[in-house]
Amino acid sequence: MKKNTITIKTRTSLTLQALLILIMLILSQYFILYKQISATAYEKEKRSFEIYANQIERSLTLICHSVNNDLAKLVEGDRFKDIIADDDITNADYNYLRGEIMKTIAFNSYNSFVEINVYSKDKCLYPRNGKDILNVLGDKIEKVENLNGNTAWLNYDSQRDVLVLAKKVLLSNKDYRPGGYIIAYVNVDIMDFIKNDFASMKGAKVVLSNEYGDIAVKQSEMSETELEGGITFHKKLTNLGFNISYRIPKEVLYEGVRDVQKVMLQGILLISFLFLITSYLISYYIAHPFKDLIKVMKASKGHLKINDKHYVNYEADQFNQYYNEVVLKNQTLINDIYERDIQVLKSQLKMLQTQINPHFLYNTLESVYLSLEARKEKESAEVVFSLSQLFKYTLKADDIVFLKDEVELLTKYLQIEKYRFGDKLIWNIFVEKGTESVKIPKLLIQPIVENAVKHGVEPSNTSTEIRVSISAYEKTLLINVYDSGNGMQSDELQKLIDHQKSKEQDNGTTSLGLKNVYDRLHNYYGSGASMEINSENKKYTEVTILISNYDDIKTRGDEQ
């Protein structure tokens, strides 16, 4: 009997919608303002980098010009040019080169030369026994050649902690013909100005590089992990052949933005808190009834239960009444279908058993077996014995059997079929050690093997192999039945798969065999079991059963 209750309309839900719109407006304004402030910080950092980069470019230009002049002074003497143009060098020439090199190392613009080597076109003139120019420069010699006498800054030598420079010598006294090369090794301290210029930019990593790698690096106080997500600025110093790369962590770049962000967040939290209380009171009348329904549904675990509460919210109360009516109808319908399906499954299992059930036939076969034994007809006697044992197995009341019992049944069944077909049937059963004690439904595998004999061996004109493989991994059981018979065409296979998964029942042998196995699998194991059929026309058919958590076998179908 319906109780008299007070109900109201859900117009108050408009208040909640207004709250959501307000929050969306606040958040949108927050992100727009935050984006503008972040963009301003980015542009400020970019301008600072441009200023420092221009300063570095001026310093590099001065250094490169000075180093180039120092090396030009070294080679400007006529005697030096004559020596470098001729591969034959005397001790006097060698001492002259040595003296000129020592003066250049001792007196140069930045006091940075560590070592200078002199090469003719073909060999090293100073020091003696030096490496060939190609072994020293490799493919970098092309860059040296293209600079036409200007000094080329090549790379940083990490083993010697020096910078490697090279210069092609042009003989001014011989129409500026190429005469040889100068290789100079410069102290890396010449690039310390990079660290000094960027010292105020804490947290940033600055790299001066060229096409051959890093020349100088100003390391960051931050870790490489923090730098990975940072912001990077680049500038190419075209005239000098260098690149400047500047990376700064986002935490450092947007450090000033955080203070503004905190104030904005505090304001948003305050406004949100005020509306939270109001929103809660409004939403309670709307959401509470439906939360009750959700709890009832979850607690039912698939078996819907009636919710006997009444609610102030008019629409929610009406919805609850309709829900209760649907639950009552569904419970009646589910009980009817469940009872019918149980009876159908039981009748299918009984049908399998009653196909070979007559007790008198078992006793008769025992008598025939004894008679054949007496007449020493061993082969026929073994077949009759296997047949009698097969009948005896099907007469057992137990519906759950050990896997080893099912394998013994398969062995006897295949021995019988071997007697029928002779060399036309080749069979093999593999059972992984340790699986014999696993419990499975009786007559789970035999119908599949029988189907392989009927559709694979019987119509074939050649020898057909049947392989049964049973293995387990952890708590998953794998049963595979393969036959090398005629197989099926793709459309036939699809029809068989569709019929297997359907609820349709028929009296055909396929339904009685594979579909019965499929239905029994899901009755005993639920979603923990699956059966897959693969086949290729004129080649093979393969049925695979996969049972996870095979110990979790249900017996409620037999207890009904």
From TrEMBL:
Gene3D superfamilies, alphabetized:
Histidine kinase-like ATPase, C-terminal domain
Q: Which GO terms describe its molecular function?
A: phosphorelay sensor kinase activity
Entry protein name: Histidine kinase
Keyword Transcription regulation in the entry? The reply is no
Q: What is the lineage of its organism?
A: Bacteria, Bacillati, Bacillota, Clostridia, Lachnospirales
Q: Does the keyword Ubl conjugation apply?
A: no
**Which segments cross the bilayer?**
12-32, 263-287
Alphabetical list of SMART domains matching this protein: HATPase_c
- Residues annotated as domain Histidine kinase/HSP90-like ATPase: 440-551
Superkingdom, natural source: Bacteria
Kindly state which keywords UniProt assigns to this record, in alphabetical order: Kinase, Membrane, Transferase, Transmembrane, Transmembrane helix
A GO term from the CC aspect: membrane
InterPro entries hit by this protein: Bact_2-comp_sensor_kinase (IPR050640), HATPase_C_sf (IPR036890), HATPase_dom (IPR003594), Sig_transdc_His_kin_internal (IPR010559)
